[in-house]
Amino acid sequence: MSATVAGVAYRAMGQQIDVDVTVTAFYDTLRRFVELCPGMLTREGAAGTRLLYTGLPVSTLNTVAVGIDPDPAEVDAFAKEMSAMGVPWSMQTRGEPEAGVRDVAARHGRTNASTLPLLAADISQPPLSEVPAGATVREITAQDGAVYAAVLAEGFEMPPEMADVFAEPALLDAPDCTAFVLEVNGEAVAAGFNVVTGEHVALYNGTVPARHRRHGYYRALVAARLRHAVAAGARYGITQNSTMSRPLYEATGFHLIEDWTYLSG
């Protein structure tokens, strides 16, 4: 199942997941991230178009997200606003964009299409994967933000100043957000970030630097993050994945609920 009809519950392996509710929860976690970071902006229009501006130099992190029943005039107004911000940006749709949305995107030079999968799972019975011998999982607060940022910078091969944004103290100390590292002999070798909203948790920023891969660290940290989320009241997990991490999540019980299209310049 590569995409869903809006409002239809997704069923697989005994799971039942309301796709629209899950997508709304995912957007809520993105909004929460933006609200906690200085200089970022998000808002939603009457027709469900969302603007998410981080200022980071990545087009999928500055988006005009189109609702399931789009108003082309509203989408165009949001696109004009985003275009004036001077950052790489994209127009995001759930599934394939309809012709009217493609026309608006083309007027703003957004003609290059790429996709990212949105996966979800019922995590009420989280995996029990053990942490590898000699490793420990630690929650990170603002006091140790540099440790978390260093793993992100190396794992994602991003500039340190960009990694520092994801280690913003307000993020790391927010009660509904938790950063994690997995450490081996005192060295952080994997990282991840959870945002909980109601019964949902979104899993972000999962990474292991190349020199530490193929030791089971990523799998162990994902399992620990899911157990933490369940303890915090979450029942459903949501994530967007790279081709590298997607098989691991699917082996953990996650399933594709939608493909999202990003139209960029």
Description:
- The structure is a single chain.
- This protein has helices at residues 19-36, 72-83, 99-107, 145-156, 160-166, 169-172, 217-231, 246-251, and strands at 9-12, 15-18, 41-44, 50-53, 62-65, 90-94, 112-122, 135-140, 177-184, 187-197, 200-207, 236-240, 255-264.
- The protein is built from eight helices and 13 strands.
- Residues 1-7 have low confidence and may be disordered.
- It has 265 residues and is α+β, with helices and mostly antiparallel strands.
- The protein folds into two domains: 9-117, no CATH class; 135-234, Aminopeptidase (3-Layer(aba) Sandwich).
- Strand 11, helix 7 and strand 12 (236-240) form a beta-alpha-beta unit.
Count of helical stretches: 8
Helix content: 25-40%
Following the backbone from N to C, one meets helices and strands in this order, namely EEHEEEHEHEEHHHEEEHEHE
Please identify the structural class as seen in this structure. Answer: alpha+beta
Gap between N and C termini: 29 Å
Number of E-type strands = 13
User: How would a textbook summarize the main sheet?
Assistant: 11 strands, mixed
